[in-house]
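Honest question from a wet-lab person: if I give you the sequences of every part of a complex, can you actually get the arrangement of the whole thing, not just the pieces? Trying it with mine:
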Amino acid sequence: MKHKKRLPYLLALPALAVLVAILYPFLTGTWWSFTSYRLNRGGPEFNWGKNYVTLFTSGEGLHALWITLFYAVMVVVIECVLGIGIAMLLNYGRYGNAFRLLIVLPLLLPPVIAALMWKVMLTENGVVNWLITALGGEKQLWLNGPDSALWSVILIDVWIFTPFVVLLAQAGLKSVPQELIEASAMDGAGPIRNFFSITLPMLTPVLVVIIAFRGIDSLKMFDIIYTTTKGGPVDATTNLHVLAYLDGIRNLNFGMAMAGLVVLWVLCNILANLLLKARRKEATV
Amino acid sequence: MTALNELDTRTLVTGRPGPTAGPRRRRKRVAHTVVVTLLSVWSLFALAPIVWILMMSLKRPEDIVVYPPKFLFVPTIDNYITVLSGSEFMTPFLNSLIVTAGSLALTLLIGLPAAYALARFQFRGRESIALGILSMRFAPELLIILPLYLLFQKTGLYDSYLGLILAYQLVTLPMLVWMLRSFIEDLPVELEEAVAVDGGNRWTAFRHVLFRLIAPGLGASLMLSFIWAWNSYTLPLVLAGKNTQVITTGIQQYISYQSIDWGPMAAATVVSIIPGILFAVFSLRWIVGGLTAGTVKG
Amino acid sequence: MNLLTHARPRRLLAVGAAAVAAVVALAGCSAASGPDASSDVKSFDWKNFSGTEINVLMSEHPLSGAIKDNIGEFEKKTGIHVHIETLTESDYMVKILTELQSGSGTYDAFMTSQPMNYQYAAAGWIEDLQPWVDNAKQTAPDWDFKDFFPALIDAERWDTTDFGGAGEGGLWAIPANEEGYALFYRKDILEANGIAVPQTIDDLIAAAKKLDGTQFDGKTIHGFVSRGDKTYPTLNPFSTFAGAYGVKDITDGKASINSPEGIEAVKKWVELMQTAPKAASTYTWYEAQQDFLAGTSAFYIDADHMAPDFEKSGSAIAGKVGYALPPEGPEGRASSMWVWSLGMNAASKQKGATWQFIQWATSKELLTTAIGNGNMNPTRVSVADSPEMAEATKNWGDYNKVWKEILADYASWPYSPSATWTEVGDIWATSIQSAILGQSDVKTALDEAADKIDAAIE
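Yes, you can. This is the full assembly:
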């Protein structure tokens, strides 16, 4: 087939146009991060990156960074393990679309609404505590406890987004050729060995997409956290995005807020680059 | 047997003298039970809150805020009547349909060629472009929302369907392009080359062969993009106005200053996931079709 | 928008412009404030701006509900077409901020509160309404500005000096809904245990401790409940203690929340909160209210206008709630207040029409009707004393008497006005939360918070 040299560029052009379009807002926001811009006190004044210094030297900023990373890692790991596991279970037999549809349902709710519903269910006198006491356990603090709040939010995230992983993993698993597994089984390998040496590597392209999207979204997670705890108790669930919201929308300290958000942007960038490298490595194998 | 059951095939293919029929079938049954149990546990976890919301939507106000929670109650459809009969919810619902459908259409138009280019061609800057498209998702909405609002005001895009559809591309385009890219890559190039040998060009190959084969991948990508667009929250909050308010903002109208109208809000939530369900039913059928795609692989 | 209506007044107004310029210079505000050329008229008439359109953005609230229900009446009276959008409160804050910051003037009128006034006035985004009130050509003769409670009007004034000038200077919004903070108690629980209604803070703490953990009606009772969440609205119920000890947030430009009185007030509050459910340390007004509604707490301090929710049919505690003044401390009784008001966008292109809207929405008639929508407490003396108000509250025990007494004698906005007040408030509330959770002792928490506040306000 003749390669028209310009064809791929032309095909990708409209998509790139969208990218260019958001450059202006993005650069504006980034510019603001280098200024001491308080929305209601005159225009932005360059302050040589003081916001970033404050961010990284204040306990507040570092804590938010920690929460951001912790949350993202936990969420991605748990959802991938659960998601791939469930996808494999679904592939085991023909369970029909009904099952798949049921599993997808949590994903259909807007995360804000789902978080709100969970918040009500997890209150002291909510359904979940009632269930626990009915089974003989003790009422938990869930979102109200300084130690349990973060895990409760992670729970909500897992509930909503694991189906996302399941869907993609299912599609990915279907492209794993059975013959390879059978051949390996013939050589005496057990199912666990097969999974790690055959299935998992072949899932890499899909895994890259999964980790990319879940990773980016969970680094940036805001809706679920703000709806349920506003970042509390104290700052147990304050990640960089929540901190930026509090700084920017509540206190009108936009310079500071943008700094936190740019750091988030950088984190996403790092993650994406790592994943792309992994992808390229796998492709050449 | 069409279900690729690992254990069975292995025993069949290895040719090892199989254990007697009894224990093998028992082992299979045990495995089967375990699988069903595990799946049921997860389904219970996944569905319980949704069932709870469904129940809430059918309860009268006095049955909702009680402790211990009520599982047996006299159902009422008042909440649904409230929700479906006013324009307070139905207009945002309609707006969401328009904006989401429009976004998906535009994303497909822009994204499919881009995904194809990224998957099938080797060209300079390919990975940079791929990263660039993905990077649309890096920026937290708060970072761009204030300048974007001003931009939209100045260009007249504020409170318009077109404006929202364009803004939604930030959410749906990276998703569609990246997912489609990996699905296209999974398919063997030989097919298109076969078409070329028969004298067709790339476009013909695409139309007749590839399109049908990536149907399951396309279905999955579209469905996920639909969900993300439908549930998008911050962008429409700021960029939509009185004419284009979408359901994510609209549902929250039931959260008033001193109380929350749980009944109507639950009903509104249930109604708002129906398009998603329909879309899922429609496209999941496509995903299952992926089984046949696997057989093409060498 | 009818261009014709604009064109004619503009042509007539060469002289008017000079007069307006004088008014603006006298008002000493930004050039965009005060009646401008496009809204100049010969004399007051509701139909002056007939044919124009305005956009209003409001938070979900009984007030906005009342306005939405009755807007048709306004449109008929004036010929002005009004588009109303309402959003839930947290969404509303994002949207109104984005809008005002852009200066695009898309929304003409909006709901505001004191902290919002401070932020917006400092930025010049909100219109000073005093020139409009004083202008007989723009203001209806029977609108009766003096009918508003003086304390509320004071709360809306600020001369934009940081941490000073409260109660003076520009009038940034017109009050439409007021809440003070009262002590709620369960009449039945107190009676059953032979406890009198506590009058002082120490009495309250003792009573709460005595009742905490006891059984009533098959449930275990908590002594107390209130807000505990880390954001500044939590300071509202706490203000009853802060004021009773004479605590100021900022004195002479430095944080004084850790003064001896400040520490004492928080110590007492923390002690009281130990008789509250453990989860209360993260409660917003909503959860605290739900807790009290569930019937499991004996005392509750929060916005007095929650009474309708306690007393409505189907409520487990209807008829059982007593309304008392906030408890006394060394400096007497005190309460903060929260005032939802209507403000005008300084960038609005329809200021005259918008001012008519604001007048109508805060008129005696609308505020009286709004009682039916649950808009309490009324901000006009005449409406507060009206038969409609008495009728609406007749089954609520002492409520009608208590809220007026709080507003008349004890309520004020006790915090220092400043564009950064929200940050100050958040820091203070977070330190209180941390003390309640036992994460640090009161003095340390307040000292650290004071340092943070000093850093934030410099």
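Two things worth pointing out. Confidence is low (pLDDT under 50) at residues 1-32 of chain C. The longest strand of chain C covers residues 174-186.
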